[in-house]
């Protein structure tokens, strides 16, 4: 039986209205609430903020003008900062790729020095090839044996037995001693190298990473002028099997050092148990959220502080860099989340970046070579590794990155 024309029109109209509402719900920004003077908090993140237009941070910004950043200008506008990379000779192709991208998008304008670290001397082939990639100074540094060797208090037999257990839980690199040494060095020793004693800021770059967006301001001066301590692009969950006692040891440290906790810390981000409750349970209270430290722009004065030095010393003596697989990413992140004002941690939304398999790809005409808003490349299960929703929920994002209700 055919419906009367009026009923058909009403049905069509209802469907159109329903479709319109669905589109608006999908497009609408997530619920916002004031996060104090310096941040806007997002209660959930149904829509990736990278899909919204991304501009530069607000002025003032330091830019190239004449020869103020020329490589041979002894009185340039550069500050005490360097691009830093721990890299082996055999990783030359990978670091050349990373250099090519970062020089093209940023450093060919600002000419900050590169500092390469290795536990063995760099070859002449490595030096020649990397020097050809930049006009800036390059320093090739050897890591002191006392910074790289396994500490005397680590039991080698226990290390091997622990690695067997980690492997049973599918923890990568469990038996690779050099990986454990690298994590320890990146956590608490790199900034003590004599080559960095006069340096305050660094941008960490690893082999085989990509940079997609032109950045036309001095990011180190941005950190200094805005009084930022740490900058990240990607925020992930860690494998709880690799850090089962890291939070337990952290709580032990806090028991006698609670005075180091900053009143505006990010404890709720570190201990959230709603989005990945199984992670928080297996990691004994730690959400496993961390900044992916293969990209970090940071002020080394934080690592040199009493709070961080004493915290690292406690962790180092506990042995988890070898008996478990504590990485520098969770160690740095927990320390920042506890001992620093969370508002001094900056999401560099405008810096397009990839370290396989994750991306930070903003919506900007300055970016090319990545898909806007794409977070991962691979199996769809990787989507759940994104911990940015927790960061935006508990800490917020800088106003320039936030979506206004009126937009």
TrEMBL record:
Pfam families: Glyco_transf_15. This is Glycosyltransferase family 15 protein. Coiled coil: none annotated. One of its GO terms (biological process) is protein O-linked glycosylation. Keywords: Glycosyltransferase, Transferase. The keyword Glycosyltransferase applies. The lineage of its organism: Eukaryota, Fungi, Dikarya, Ascomycota, Pezizomycotina. The active site is at residue 296. Belongs to the glycosyltransferase 15 family. GO terms for molecular function: alpha-1,2-mannosyltransferase activity. GO terms for cellular component: Golgi apparatus; membrane. PANTHER family: ALPHA-1,2 MANNOSYLTRANSFERASE KTR1, MANNOSYLTRANSFERASE KTR4-RELATED.
């Amino acid at each position: 039986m055919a419906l009367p024309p009026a009923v058909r029109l009403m049905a069509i109209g209802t469907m159109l209205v329903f479709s319109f509402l669905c589109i608006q719900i999908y497009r609408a920004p997530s619920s916002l609430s004031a996060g104090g003077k310096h941040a806007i908090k997002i209660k959930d993140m149904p829509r990736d903020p990278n899909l919204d237009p991304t501009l530069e941070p607000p002025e003032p910004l330091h830019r190239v003008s004449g020869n103020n950043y020329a490589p041979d200008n002894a009185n340039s506008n550069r500050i005490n900062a360097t691009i830093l990379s721990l890299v082996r000779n055999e990783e030359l192709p990978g670091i050349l790729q990373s250099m090519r991208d970062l020089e093209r998008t940023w450093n060919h304008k600002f000419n900050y020095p590169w500092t390469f670290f290795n536990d063995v001397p760099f070859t002449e082939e490595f030096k020649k090839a990397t020097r050809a990639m930049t006009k800036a100074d390059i320093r090739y540094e050897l890591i002191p044996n006392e910074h790289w060797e396994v500490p005397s208090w680590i039991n080698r037999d226990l290390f091997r037995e622990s690695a067997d257990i980690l492997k049973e839980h599918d923890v990568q690199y469990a038996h690779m001693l050099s990986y454990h040494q690298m994590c320890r060095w990146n956590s608490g020793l790199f900034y003590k190298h004599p080559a960095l004693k006069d340096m305050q800021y660094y941008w960490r770059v690893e082999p085989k990473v990509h940079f997609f967006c032109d950045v036309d301001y001095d990011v180190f001066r941005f950190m200094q002028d805005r009084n930022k301590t740490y900058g990240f692009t990607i925020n992930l969950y860690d494998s709880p099997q690799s850090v089962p006692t890291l939070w337990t040891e952290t709580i032990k440290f806090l028991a006698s050092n609670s005075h180091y906790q900053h009143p505006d810390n990010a404890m709720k981000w570190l201990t959230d148990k709603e989005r990945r409750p199984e992670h928080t349970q297996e990691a004994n209270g730690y959400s496993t959220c961390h900044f992916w430290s293969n990209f970090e722009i940071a002020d080394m004065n934080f690592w040199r502080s009493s709070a961080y030095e004493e915290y690292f010393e406690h962790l180092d003596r506990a042995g988890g860099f070898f008996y478990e697989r504590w990485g520098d990413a969770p160690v740095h992140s927990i320390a920042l989340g506890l001992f620093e004002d969370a508002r001094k941690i900056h999401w560099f939304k405008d810096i397009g970046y990839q370290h396989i398999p994750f991306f930070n790809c903003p919506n900007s005409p300055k970016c090319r070579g990545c898909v806007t808003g794409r977070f991962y490349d691979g199996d769809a299960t990787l989507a759940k590794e994104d911990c940015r929703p927790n960061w935006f929920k508990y800490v917020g994002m800088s106003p320039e990155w936030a979506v206004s209700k009126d937009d």
